């Protein structure tokens, strides 16, 4: 008895019992994993309650608008600050103080203004000249506290009470806050072409002091400049990006329709198409490499020029195109070698895809089910994001004493701005103020904000995995209805996709939630490990880093294994209607008894589908490349002027791949379902009249099994 014959029989060699009434997915079902279903429903209700509580306590304006020293939002409608959208720091030099790291707040008065200062000025100079230069006073006064208009008040008292800033410097808004307008002139850091400035307290300071106060602001501003250019590119090219994605969708649908009739020819076109695209890429890289020969500066290395925000600079280097050419050559060689050694297995996989395409041809509605999964996941993401924002902004404004004197015992203590002036703090600490520090609270709700955020993330992962599980089980049930139809297509039930969806929701919500729960726990652990790894990057404890790396690797492997088991367990649930654990066990042992077929048919099929995605994305990407680089004469006048042509190009390529993935995932689920059904069919039946096979005649011939018994109409 060979290995395939052994699969016809049971655990101890006895034939598997034939059920003459078995016709695929069982309709007389009962609810499975009821306890998990109840827990899942309770958790969803609790999640809704958490969102409501966060909505009641949260205020997203705390994220949108900056807050001044009085806890008022800058730019908020129907307030005195409606037209004052930018936050101004009285003394930005204090932002370099270690207090900033402790309190997460700059220890200086902060005021909402309509625009940032555009000149150097000090309060001493403005006060001395206010009588014969009133315009300077009127300009400076807009950066003082609202209502202050007493230039006769002594400078010492004004600075002590922080009625006005001691100085203003040319600034520009960034993240709705005024930061010094840094620039570099001949390699020297300047502000408004000046390297020094007066601090309003009798000292002349260097602009490098300002850079320390706004640490890293130059890099941030460079990133902002790149970000603004990218945003501009999206704003003027979004129409063409949508056209590219629409073309990708049409190509994916066309390939899926053609796959039913010409699976073999089409997939060989896929394969050679990918080889051709990569080959063109190799030729283009060589052409660019050879074209740059002799051009001054082209022989520099990436290391020589360092990081540049203008990525076109790298395309002027021969080294860049040489690296691209080497990478593409390596990919080309790998693909060709895989085709040589797996050519026979690919023929088998193509035959299985033909059967899958025939199944989808009878159940065309399955092609559009990924839209349902996408909508469910989009709802989960939106709800999670909104809840996270409301939770993050749930705190009440907390005010603290900000004192100029370092020995003030009341410094950094909480205070009430409404009663602060009636306390003794102002007498014991002259110049002390009760200013806004941060959002927080001391009640029970605010103490557990972090726990709520963690719960929000965990339930989000649970719901996303449930949405994916529901889609897999629904598709599996529909395709199993096709396979177990004895006379195809006569015995295929009416509306198999909708019937499968109804069975999954009505009877197996608990089982799907159970599988999603296990996966969500592992994913949450992985998120925590990534967070710890990010926090420990600056440490020098090699053992800790090594242990963390091992844990990350182990849990990554565990997640992949669980996804594989869950996917096949959902197929068994869709067919037999058993609980999750039983279905997972039966699916696992069924696959282990057919491990060779799993490795060859299933994985080679995945590889072919991946090549299809690459061809769709690559084809649309090449078309987009020629379009955005104005190499198509017919559309040359319609191409928008872009800062970086790679922005819409990468968007189209990645978007096309995701669109193709959505459609090809239906085929992947179809092949996996048919494969499990085929293995189960072999173990249940032997092809005799008493126990006939349910597989189609074409699939039977491909896999070289016994001759099928004739099916009676």
From TrEMBL:
Membrane protein topology class: Multi-pass membrane protein
GO CC term, one of those recorded: plasma membrane
Name of the gene this protein is made from: Slc44a5
Protein known as: Choline transporter-like protein
One annotated GO molecular function: antiporter activity
Transmembrane portions of the chain: 31-56, 238-258, 265-283, 321-342, 362-386, 459-486, 507-529, 607-628, 649-669
Domain of life: Eukaryota
Keywords annotated in UniProt: Antiport, Cell membrane, Glycoprotein, Membrane, Transmembrane, Transmembrane helix, Transport
Compartments, as annotated in UniProt: Cell membrane
Catalysis performed (reactions): choline(out) + n H(+)(in) = choline(in) + n H(+)(out)
Family: Belongs to the CTL (choline transporter-like) family.
Function: Choline transporter.
């Amino acid at each position: 008895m060979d290995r395939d014959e052994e699969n016809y029989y049971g655990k101890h060699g006895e034939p598997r019992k034939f059920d003459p009434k078995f016709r695929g997915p069982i309709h007389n079902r009962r609810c499975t994993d009821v306890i998990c279903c109840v827990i899942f429903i309770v958790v969803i209700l609790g999640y809704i309650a958490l969102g409501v509580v966060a909505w009641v306590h949260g205020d997203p304006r705390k994220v949108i608008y900056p807050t001044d020293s009085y806890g008022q939002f800058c730019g908020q409608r129907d307030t005195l600050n409606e037209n004052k959208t930018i936050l101004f720091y009285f003394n930005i030099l204090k932002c370099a103080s270690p207090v900033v790291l402790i309190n997460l707040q700059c220890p200086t008065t902060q005021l909402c203004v309509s625009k940032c200062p555009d000149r150097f000025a000090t309060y001493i100079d403005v006060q001395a000249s206010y009588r014969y230069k009133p315009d300077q006073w009127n300009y400076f006064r807009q950066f003082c506290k609202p209502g202050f208009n007493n230039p006769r008040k002594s400078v010492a008292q004004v600075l002590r009470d922080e009625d006005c800033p001691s100085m203003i410097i040319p600034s520009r808004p960034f993240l709705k806050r005024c930061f010094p307008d840094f620039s570099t002139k001949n390699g020297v850091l300047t502000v408004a072409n000046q390297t020094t400035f007066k601090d309003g307290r009798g000292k002349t300071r260097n602009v490098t002091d300002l850079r320390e106060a706004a640490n890293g602001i130059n890099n941030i501003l460079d990133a902002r400049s790149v970000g603004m250019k990218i945003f501009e590119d999206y704003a003027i090219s979004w129409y063409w990006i949508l056209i590219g994605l629409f073309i990708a969708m049409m190509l994916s649908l066309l390939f899926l329709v053609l796959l039913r009739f010409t699976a073999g020819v089409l997939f060989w076109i896929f394969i050679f198409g990918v080889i051709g695209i990569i080959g063109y890429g190799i030729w283009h890289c060589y052409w660019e490499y050879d074209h740059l020969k002799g051009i001054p500066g082209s022989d520099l290395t990436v290391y020589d020029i360092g990081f540049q925000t203008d990525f076109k600079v790298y395309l002027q280097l021969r080294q860049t195109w040489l690296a691209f050419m080497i990478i593409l050559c390596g990919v080309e060689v790998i693909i060709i070698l895989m085709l040589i050694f797996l050519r026979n297995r690919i023929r088998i996989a193509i035959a299985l895809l033909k059967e899958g395409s025939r199944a989808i041809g009878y159940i065309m509605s399955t092609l559009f089910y990924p839209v349902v999964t996408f909508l469910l996941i989009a709802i989960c993401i939106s709800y999670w994001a909104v809840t996270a924002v409301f939770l993050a902004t749930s705190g009440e404004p907390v005010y603290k004493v900000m004192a100029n004197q370092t020995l003030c015992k009341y410094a950094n203590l909480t205070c009430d701005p409404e009663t602060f002036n009636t306390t003794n703090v102002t007498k014991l600490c002259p110049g002390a103020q009760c200013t806004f520090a941060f959002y927080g609270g001391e009640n029970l709700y605010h103490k557990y904000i972090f726990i709520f955020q963690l719960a929000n993330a965990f339930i989000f992962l649970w719901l996303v995995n449930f949405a994916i599980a529901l889609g897999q089980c629904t598709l599996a049930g529909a395709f199993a209805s096709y396979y177990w139809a004895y006379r195809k297509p006569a015995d295929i039930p009416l509306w198999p996709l909708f019937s499968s969806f109804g069975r999954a929701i009505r009877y197996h919500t608990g089982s799907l939630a159970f599988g999603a729960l296990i996966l969500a726990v592992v994913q949450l652990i992985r998120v925590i490990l990534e967070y710890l790894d990010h926090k420990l990057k600056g440490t020098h404890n090699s053992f800790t880093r090594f242990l963390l790396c091992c844990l990350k690797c182990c849990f990554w492997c565990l997640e992949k294994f669980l996804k594989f088991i869950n996917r096949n367990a959902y197929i068994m649930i869709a067919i037999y209607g058993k609980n999750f654990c039983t279905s997972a066990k039966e699916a696992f042992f069924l696959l282990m008894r057919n491990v060779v077929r799993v490795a060859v048919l299933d994985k080679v099929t995945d590889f072919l589908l991946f090549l299809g995605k690459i061809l769709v994305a690559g084809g649309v990407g090449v078309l987009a490349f020629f379009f955005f680089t104005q190499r198509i004469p017919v559309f040359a006048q319609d191409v928008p002027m872009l800062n970086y042509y790679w922005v819409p190009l990468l968007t189209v390529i990645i978007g096309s791949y995701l669109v193709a993935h959505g459609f090809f995932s239906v085929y992947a689920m179809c092949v996996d379902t048919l494969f499990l059904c085929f293995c189960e069919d072999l173990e249940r039946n032997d092809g005799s009249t008493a126990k006939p096979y349910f597989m189609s005649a074409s699939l039977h011939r491909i896999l070289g099994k016994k001759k099928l018994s004739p099916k009676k109409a």
